[in-house]
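Troubleshooting log. The previous structure file for this entry was overwritten by mistake, so regenerating from the original sequence record. Sequence copied from the archived sheet and checked twice against the printout by T.R.
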Amino acid sequence: MGADRSGLTVRFRIDLGAGRAVGPGKIALLEHIGARGSLSQAARDLGMSYRRAWELLEALNRSFRERVVATSTGGRGGGGATLTPFGMALIRGYRDFESDIQSRATRHFSRLTGTSGPQPVAPGALPTPVTRLNARARAARALAPAAKSRK
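Regenerated output below.
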């Protein structure tokens, strides 16, 4: 999902108990696996190591009774990764819930921030990979527009 026109963004994680969780990073990984058919390519697309992607995928597969991705071992023709029907349903359920939360947050906070409704997202568009900023980077980014306008 992304920010609406005001920049309002809701990010959430669903904790399933016993150290199991589903959040935007794991869902983005599943979406990229679905689009690319490859765990290694999905990892490259998201700027993460193959090992980290494999760990996230294994954590997801252990979190549910059904696997979210079926993998095949590499070899002469190469391996691959395919979303299972359950994996597709997990993505769809997460994104539907995210859309609902984003709409509710926009309605709720728009009167406080003076902004309008959510910005439409192109159908089938993959979400932008998540970038986490530390406090120093956020401060630098916040000052950047002010510095440009002084020139």
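Helices lie at 24-36, 39-46, 50-63, 85-113, 135-150. Archived copy saved in two places this time.
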